[in-house]
Amino acid sequence: MLYLIGLGLNYDSISSYGLEITKRCKKIYLENYTVDFPYSLQQLKDVIGKNIIPADRDFVEKFEIIDQAKKCNVALLIYGSPLTATTHISLIQEAKASGIKYQIIYNASIFDAVGETGLQLYKFGKIASMPAWKKNYEPDSFMEIVKQNLASQAHSLILIDIGLEFPEALEQLEKAAKKHDLKLKKLIICQRLGARYHKVLYRDFEEMKTFTGIEKPYCLIFPSKLHFVEKEFLEGL
User: Fold this and answer.
1) Domains in the chain and their CATH numbers?
2) What is the chain's alpha carbon radius of gyration, rounded to the nearest angstrom?
3) pLDDT the model gives residue 212
């Protein structure tokens, strides 16, 4: 059987039921390619009490874990909640096609945690992802999503690619905004929400460029038209 277990946002936030399930599993994998963890693998091992095998994108997307689940109980630990990435949906589809039983054990995710900004969750629009740019490859379609959200007075959550440092993310953001003729004003930085050293900052973009020490994982939010309660909360940060 295959178990997809959400870890929540900190090393010790796995649910008691999720922890119980890991005791039944012969193999436990940790999906490690969609987030910069705010804790170490050893900290997680200490909580689980069993060996945990890091699983990269290639391993997961080749469905090797499905083949193993035909023979024994296997768990895939996923930061946040299990079904926030397309690859994890594909795992379920493959499990169904292979006649493998599966179970999803949910947990908190960044989509819950951004409520700490004071923004109303139902006012968020489409979620955008900022990939790390490479030489001769600078995808900026995420900025088009931001423009669409702003046009409908919806807030924009931008998830940052794994490994992308904060200064580089701001540089990419500035270039993409210029290309899409969007002026960067006040933005929100969410750092390590749900974990130790979490932080929420509401600042002008130019001020953000002077910041050092922003820790991963972090995300950015473009606030749209603010309700007076949202505005009051943000200005109190």
Assistant:
1) 2-108 (3.40.1010.10), 111-235 (3.30.950.10)
2) 19
3) 87
